[in-house]
Amino acid sequence: MTLELDIAGRFVSATDRAAARRRLPATSDVDLRVALLRKLTAPAGAPMVIEEMAIAGEARVDVATIGDHLRGFEIKSERDTLRRLPSQIRVYSRVFDYVTLVVSDRHAEQAKGIIPEWWGVLEARRTRSGVALTRRVRPRKNRHVDPWYLTSLLWRDEALRVLTDRGLDRGMRSKNGLQLREALVESVPTSALRAAVRESLRLRRDWRPATP
């Protein structure tokens, strides 16, 4: 019989530990979201944290951070399924510099077989004191950001401002949002566009503050 130490320093069998865990309630989106937001907002000088960021009218990422990079975090609790994950992968992988899946231990192994190799994984496990997050895979930088999808994060006036700052606004002020996005994609290198989008999002004033 294999014995393990519990949080009180007592020896318990792996069977007893598993049985105790089964008695704990299943994790929900809220449980994982609170744990994640605490982790992201705790450090001094933490990047801006946004919940439910819309992307190209096709998806909303659960949590995003805007700092030196644009990072997305998708949550899959025990009460969720992985049914929408493939379509979310397709959208998020076109926009974010880094993506991390925050997934319950129940879905972790299956999810690892679905997500791209460059995505990170934070595994969530219910404990008697809350939800513990453990990094299983560190995210790597996305080398294939889609400039067109990236510009979908900008409002029309933000897109025009990016063009104006680069002296590219001639004949652009009467254009609609789609035409401005086309001009950005054609005229601004992707690396510069990444930085310009992050700066525009940081300057936007109507974000709802994310709090755990």
CATH architecture of the largest domain: 3-Layer(aba) Sandwich
Please state how the strands of the largest beta sheet are arranged side by side: 3-4-5-6-7-8
Sheet-strand content, in percent, reads 15-25%
Distance between the termini: 40 Å
Structural class of the helix and strand makeup?
Answer: alpha/beta
The biggest sheet amounts to: 6 strands, mixed
- Mean pLDDT, to the nearest integer, reads 89
Rg measurement, Å: 21 Å
Percent in helix: 25-40%
C-alpha geometry:
elongated
Order of helices and strands: EEHHEEEHEHEEHHHH
Count of strand segments = 8
Low-confidence stretches: none
How many discrete structural domains?
Answer: 2
The fold-level CATH name of the largest domain is Trna Endonuclease, Chain: A, domain 1
CATH top level assignment of the largest domain: Alpha Beta
Counted by DSSP, the helix tally is 8
Overview features:
Trna Endonuclease, Chain: A, domain 1; 8 helices; single chain; two-stranded antiparallel sheet; six-stranded mixed β-sheet; Sce7726 family protein; 212 residues; 8 strands; alpha/beta
